[in-house]
Amino acid sequence: FDPRHYLGTHCHGFPKTGPHRLRFLLESVKDLRETLKKKGSTLVVRKGKPEDVVRDLITQLGSVSTVVFHEEVRETL
């Protein structure tokens, strides 16, 4: 979770992530983790700037050959 997505960001005068959306996101991540566990996998969840968190995870894991990510589409007004 990138803290920059939850601090003072607004879109069309509304908070980008209000309490209801945050609860939905947290419940969705929890459900995904539980589903993956049932299939013998896991989900790594971290809080921080992705550029820092991913670098730290790669360092911790040591043998990472591929990293895949997506970038959020931003509206230009």
UniProtKB/TrEMBL annotation:
Keywords: Chromophore. InterPro entries: Crypto/Photolyase_N_sf (IPR036155), Cryptochrome/DNA_photolyase_1 (IPR002081), DNA_photolyase_N (IPR006050), Rossmann-like_a/b/a_fold (IPR014729). Coiled coil: none annotated. GO terms for biological process: photoreactive repair. Pfam families: DNA_photolyase. Gene3D superfamilies: HUPs (3.40.50.620). It comes from the Eukaryota. GO terms for molecular function: damaged DNA binding; deoxyribodipyrimidine photo-lyase activity; FAD binding. Residues 1-77 form the Photolyase/cryptochrome alpha/beta domain. This is CRYD protein. The gene is Crydash_0.
